[in-house]
Structures are given as C-alpha cells and as structure tokens.
Automatic annotation (TrEMBL):
A matching Pfam family: Esterase
Protein's name in the database: Esterase family protein
Coiled coil: none
Superkingdom of the organism of origin: Bacteria
Length: 246
C-alpha cells in the first residue's frame, strides 16, 4: 500500500507566454517539495511530456518518497505539457516546430521558472528528463544551450538519424552527463517516423556521446516502450543527479 504521505503533493499549474510558439503560450505543472520554502533554493528537473511524467510516471509521488524517506535533497519538478498531435513536430529536429520549441525552452521557459521560483542558477542544478523523443529533444536542448544544461535523463531515447547527425557534428561534450536506459524488447518500435530498433539506437548514441567525452550511466533491462517500464527506473535516474542530505 502506498504511504499516504507520498500522495500529499503540491502541484501548481502555470501558463508561460511565448513569442516563439505559434499558440503564444504553454501550460506547465510545477511540483513543490515537502517543506517548500521560498527563502531556500532548489535544484530543478524539467520534464518533457510533463502530463505523462506526472500521471503515468508518478514522478511527484516518487519525489515525495525520496525526499521524505531517503533523505534526498528537496527539488522542484517542472512538467512541460505537449499536444500529442504536435509532439513529433516539436521534439524531432526535422519537425517544423522544433526550432521554435527549443528557443521557447531555453529563452522563455527557464527564465520564467527561475524568476518565479527559488531555483539555483548553476547548470549542475538543472536536469532535463524525457522519454522516447523527449529524451532525444533533451539532448538537443543541452547542445543548443550548453551553459544551461549538462544533466540529462533519457528513457528509451528516440535517437533517430537526424538527431544522431546533430550529435555526431557536435564538438567536445565532456560537460554532459546522461542517465540512459532502454528496454530489451524495444527492437521493432513503430513510430511516426518509421520502425526502429531502440536498443541499437541507444547503443549507438551512447558510443557517439562517450567518444566526445560525455559520461553516461547506461543500462539495458527487460522492458518495452511503455511507462510501466520507465517508471520503475525513475528513482534511480533521479538519484544519479540529486544529492542526498543524509
């Protein structure tokens, strides 16, 4: 049975204006940790597919458990919502909304959050997290804004050929640290852009990243391309980048 304390979550709905996104704004949900105090400062996890990270990944419940029972340093979570009909257009580099989304994220979303909440301003206190194409766009965001992002959680990252080309063309990536997992049953995933072997994609991306100096915590597990798989490894992913207070 889930401890009732884990379910007492503070999640604030926000709307951030945008001059880059055609619709002019984007919905967010912001998790505030137990004992949240505006006089303190916090690391932050930015999640692509924000609604799914909260609803299917149960990331707020996991955060409460880590903070209350494991001594994890309290942290804030920002879930960035996405219209699933536009997801590939925003997250995939060949998408017609991709450049606008990347600019929105680095130039509007991060300043909005850091102006409104007591977020630490050093890159070591910002973590990007994403599943599938969300993992891929998180890597591309870190390349586009190297002064903002160095830490990435990629759950079964959809590292399709165009994203791979961008990473291959990058220079030194020794500042990057990644937590990467993929399911061993993800060998013929049907996506909007074709059928792909995600195990091969992730092995190749790990090799490319490490060849450019990036550090990776990489693992392959029994699992498929579903939230039931990714949710199991979210605590381990978060522990990789968040300090313990104990």
């Amino acid at each position: 049975m889930t401890d009732e304390r884990y379910l007492k979550r503070t999640i604030v709905k926000e709307v951030v204006a945008s001059r880059f996104l055609p619709e002019g704004s984007r919905n967010l949900r912001v998790y505030l940790p137990p004992g949240y105090n505006e006089l303190l400062s916090y690391p932050v996890v930015y999640c692509q597919d924000g609604e799914q990270f909260f609803n299917f990944g149960r990331i707020a419940t996991i955060a409460n458990q880590m903070i209350l029972d494991e001594g994890a340093e309290p942290f804030i979570i920002v879930g960035v919502d996405v219209d699933l009909a536009r997801r590939t257009a925003e997250y995939a580099p060949e998408g017609d909304r991709h450049r606008a989304y990347v600019s929105f994220f680095g130039e509007e979303l991060v300043p909005f959050i850091e102006d409104k909440y007591p977020i630490r301003r050093e890159s070591e206190s910002r973590i990007l997290a994403g599943d599938s194409l969300g993992g891929s766009v998180s890597v591309l965001l870190a390349l586009a804004y190297p002064n903002l992002f160095h830490q990435i959680i990629a759950l079964s990252g959809a590292f399709y050929p165009e994203a791979r080309k961008i990473v291959e063309a990058a220079g030194d990536l020794s500042a990057l640290s990644l937590y990467m997992i993929v399911g061993l049953q993800e060998t013929a995933f049907k996506s909007d852009l074709g059928v792909f072997d995600f195990v091969a994609l992730n092995r190749d991306m790990r090799r490319i990243l490490e060849s450019k100096g990036a550090s990776t915590v990489y693992a392959e597990h029994d699992g498929d391309h579903v939230w039931g798989f990714w949710q199991r490894f979210l605590p381990d992913a978060l522990r990789t980048f968040l300090r313990s207070e104990s």
